[in-house]
Amino acid sequence: MSEETKERKRYVRQAVLARRDALSQEARRRAACLITERLLGHQWFYRADILLCYASYGSELETGELIREALRLGKQVFLPRVLPGHRMDFFQIDSPEELQPGFHGILEPPELHPYREIAENPALRGEETGPGGPALMLMPGVAYDPYGNRLGYGGGYYDRYLEAHPRFLTYSIGIGHSCQLVEKLPVEETDCKPYQVILV
To answer: Per residue in 143-185, pLDDT tens?
Structure first.
């Protein structure tokens, strides 16, 4: 990555995070309700047996209600956990109460049931099986642009994970607040962008 691209990304992160952090509690609650409604009505969510989501942190778009609803509907829910060697993997949860502060204080699942344990599940492979459907991944981000590009926090965890597991890109949605939309993001070949973006 060139120094110019690094600097541009750093500037966008600072500007967008400042906007997001300035949102009122009411605006955040409203956005959480809207994203839950949008996703519950989304055909990908309806058809998915497996949800790869994230535990919201700081001023990120709140995902707690969506996670609880997915579990209530009987979906298998997996959340990310940062591992040694700058790696990230997804582990299954049965309840949000299982989550504990981990990397940078972000809530993480216990290291008990990684997605690998159900890697033979056709739903996880993006295939159809009976009433089930493909796994759906919901991605956090700092900023998005109208071309579907996503800017993360700079650790490259999702980029590396999706490079190793490209099948998840087929049913991936980047979500966030509407204030996270920018005109155009600096991008690199290693940046993985979600198939859809929903901002509320």
So the answer is: 999 999 999 999 999 999 999 888 888 899 999 999 999 999 9
Helix (H, G, I), strand (E, B) or coil at 40: helix
End-to-end CA distance of the chain: 31
Amino acid (one-letter) located at 16: V
Q: What three-state secondary structure class fits 70? A: helix
| Residues sharing a CB contact under 8 Å with residue 98, sequence separation 6 or more, in sequence order | 109, 110
193 class by beta-carbon count within 10 Å (0-12 exposed, 13-18 middle, 19+ buried): buried
**pLDDT tens track for 41-88:** 999 999 999 999 999 999 999 999 999 999 999 999 999 999 999 999
> Cα(154)–Cα(148) distance, rounded to whole angstroms?
18
Q: Which amino acid is at 2?
A: S
CA 56 to chain centre: 9
Kindly report the average pLDDT of the chain as a whole number.
90
In three-state secondary structure terms, 136 is: strand
